[in-house]
Amino acid sequence: MANHSASIGSNIHPFRKFNKQHLQSTDSFSTEEFDKRLEETVENFGKNKEANSNSNPSSNISPNPNSKNIFRKNISTFELETIGSDFDMPSSRADSNVTRPLLENSEWNNTSNNDAYHSPQPNFVSPSALAQQNNIFNRFSNFFSFNKKSSNRINYQSTTLSTNDDEHSSIIFGQREIHPDTTPIYDKKKYPTNAISNAKYNPFTFVPILLYEQFKFFYNLYFLMVALSQSIPALRIGYLSSYIVPLAFVLTVTMTKEALDDLRRRKRDSESNNELYYVLQKSQLVQSKNLKVGDIIKIEKDRRIPSDLVLLQSSEPSGECFIKTDQLDGETDWKLRIAPAVTQNLLEIDLINKIKITASSPEKSIHKFLGKVTYKESSSNPLSIDNTLWANTVLASSGSCIGCVVYTGKDTRQAMNTTSPTVKTGLLELEINDLSKILCLSVFILSVVLVLFAGFKNDDWVIDIMRYLILFSTIIPVSLRVNLDLAKSVYAYQIEHDKIIPETVVRTSTIPEDLGRIEYLLSDKTGTLTQNDMELKKIHLGAVSYTPETLDIVSDYVSTMVSNKKQNKSVNHMISTARKDNSNRVRDMVATLALCHNVTPTFEDDELTYQAASPDEIAIVKFTESVGLSLFKRDRNSISLLHEHSGSILNYKILNVFPFNSDTKRMGIIVFDETNKEYWFLEKGADTVMVKIVEKNEWLEEETGNMAREGLRTLVIGRKRLTQKEYEQFSAAYKAASLSMMNRDENMAEAITQYLEYELELLGLTGVEDKLQKDVKSSIELLRNAGIKIWMLTGDKVETARCVSISAKLISRGQYVHTITKMNKPQGALEQLEYLKINRNACLLIDGESLGMYLTYYKNEFFNVSIHLPAVIACRCTPQQKADIALIIREFTGKRVCCIGDGGNDVSMIQCADVGVGIVGKEGKQASLAADFSITQFCHLTKLLLWHGRNSYKRSAKLAQFVMHRGLIIAICQAVFSICSSFEPIALYQGWLMVGYATFYTMAPVFSLTLDHDIEESLTKIYPELYKDLIEGTSLSRKTFFVWVLLSFYQGCTIQLFSQKFTSILVEDFSKMVSISFTALIINELIMVALEFHSWNKIMFITEVGTFSFYILSVPFLGEYFDLSYFRRFSFLTELIVILSLSILPVWISKAIHRKLHPPSYAKVQEFSNV
Q1: 922 annotated as belonging to a binding site for a ligand
Q2: Does residue 914 carry a catalytic annotation?
Q3: Per residue in 877-895, pLDDT tens?
Q4: Distance CA 577, CA 763 (A)
Q5: Which residues lie within the region annotated Disordered (predicted)?
Q6: What is the CATH number of the domain that holds 484?
């Protein structure tokens, strides 16, 4: 490498030295001066290129050792990309091997010979990224603006530094360079604040947004126009307050409720923003919201990570720490993070003043990160996802760690995967809004027709139309919104005080009716369907299997693993591969399980606990502990087991570890048995890959299928003894592969396959159960029978999701599961969907990579098929993918979508759903706080939907229709009177009568419909199919609406015509006519409400009797409107009975006949249950 560098050093070092000298200087200089010097450097570099000399064009620039900070302040980042194959330079063309040294010895990538550049670390960027780069001189020309006439101000926005060699491999450093000593000071305004804000409004947007949300509904806008019209004397009818007060009341209640909700959100945000963290630069505690990029902070155990950090140090000597990522990706298994070797042992003062971090630009992916940490500009380590601590994760390890802030606020992974909360509107309100438009159009047509019949000879015909519009405004009563809003509060109270679903909280009280309209349920897995509590339920050795009931047998076998040393000093802890009796096979299996994992034991408060990235591994280690072989100690280089029966410590040296990942689907380890001086390769993995690795057998496929049908997560266990020579051959090949700069991962995997993964001894099969939440199976079965299509969206592995789906009965017995994985290219994607078009009873299992491809290329085709399937399981989903699916299903189907989850990674999905449900559980309360409804268990969802959803929807539907009926019938009376009075726009009922009609005289009985229910609660679980009627929206449809319109028309005409017949429309009889018609109107409504009740209770009875009594008692005070002497006549009573009989009896009879001939589903169920 040295000779390569020397051969072209003259061609590249001008830029290196130019930047180095300025980075080391501290005197300030203007941007113009810098541009001028830069242009001179570029010109000299061009001359140098032609001459291929070793001159240094930057030598004429006097070094300024005090301008380092100013340089960084003026130039936030610097972009430089070198592409070896495109570097059009004679010296580089002459030798194909000179491309890598271009940057190797530069000050930009000053890496020691011992650093990670040469170590077997994962490559940062795929070679394909390099092919997209432009010629180096074109990039310099475009970036630095060679033309001196161009603007002398350079726009430095993003920086990308890459190194390349002849194998087209590179390390790319991203778009921000962080110096802990200066970045928090000079660049504090460059990056977003770290304050968290989940509030929907601020003081300036609160009123405008809420007014828009209210008046975007047509009937609210209609009420407003009618209320404003009363300020015009010519249009005024009755009291102005009768129009203004109800509307003002609705707006006040809504705004107060939204304000309180937003204040609660702000309070929660304030708690997070005011958390204190120790900042090393300031040597004091700083609030989370005041953290800046470049701050180095100390995190203690169980503390939330306040922003995206790069881990610099851990209190563990190995530099390791574990974090809980459940609030980010939904997985409660702990993730291992490792501090870079270059910073792990530095002093705090050196961390502040002598390191530099280069980080890639912010992005959504929570599984990717590119960066580099440099110490003293001499040694460095690359940074990957293994060195990061993302915001909202929690430090799980004992002790503490130190990290540097690289992203804050909206740049954090958590924020970029979280959508802003929106104001949700119920489907019922949208349907009522559409019906209101029909009613308004009817009112306008009716008004024009009445004026038309009266003739347009009147010069005030326009005013007459307006007055008619106001007179008939009761057709769309303002009390409709009041009743509906109050009803929602009643439903919320009933839900929160239901003892069967305790601790349920309604956070959004505007959409309870939507609980009865859900057609798609999108559920998280971990913590939602499962408890994330793993337990090993079965081990199978081919000829025999063991369950928790037979653990004593396994313990007896394990107890003989280590004999008394005096009797047998050459005991073989790892029994030979020869087939022996069951005891030897069990001991081999248990020993392998105790060694083949990534679990670390820790002692807290004198209690042994385990830390691991997978709960499956912890379950297996706990199993080996229960049978007498405990994991005693582990570090990077060794592992020790405690044989409890003998008290012996079995020591093994860890030579290689091959971690589990979704590609290989297996995990392996090579250990050296220090007692017997033997090398062992141990491996476990999914049956789909292990079946090709282990020796041939006849039972593996059958038993894995049996365990899968039991809902167990299966792992195949195998091992292989290696000779020292075999291990050395593998080690040499593996090390060579790990040092390659091209296709490193593939080469390493090939070495493992070639030297290790063949003819492994098949030891057995394990079955681990992820315990389901209480009553999950029955709940899912109920929901599916109710016609709800269930999608499970999880960040977990495909195999895990499949097992949980089977155990939770999301996949029915015998149901075909169509699996689509690793589909990252559009070719052949549509063919994968063909089977699902034919068999719509199949279940789809798809991973996040394939899902992302379909969303990009074939979104319409994919969802046109998948929305008809009874169940879809999507694995490895990002939080944003979950949210996107919810939005797309809403867009494609127009149906109500409910999303349920319990982790911070579910927040976006919950907020994008029509109805978001959060579960309070092990993963905290973030999902619960962001949800519309908060519950404590998944099984509570069934009652929330099937019972409370049913009641909320059916009650509100009936309430809305009754309120409209109440407005329609009085408007019909007004229309009949106007027609009979020569089309004069004269008010039939005025003043208090209009106010009282919509409030004191009818509101309580009508509102008591919110306490009614058509079936008993138990029947909703016995016959969940009843929910399908709600999904179809049959309780409030255009059909039912027009039935109520005809009913109102009939009753209004009957009441008014017979009232006029028994009196007259003459002026002297006007008060008599108003007396009998208004009284008939009130009693008609009370009787109609009573006929609609399915289940009477005390409150309903009191409202009926109380309202009627109140009306009778108020009549003596209504002499202004009524002829009180008329009330005392016997003829009044008989005429009233006649009117009511003609108004109600035909309606009641026709409904009874229709119910007999066409009974609704709930009526059939009631009759059947009473038999």
Answers
A1: no
A2: no
A3: 888 889 899 999 999 998 9
A4: 9
A5: 46-70
A6: 1.20.1110.10
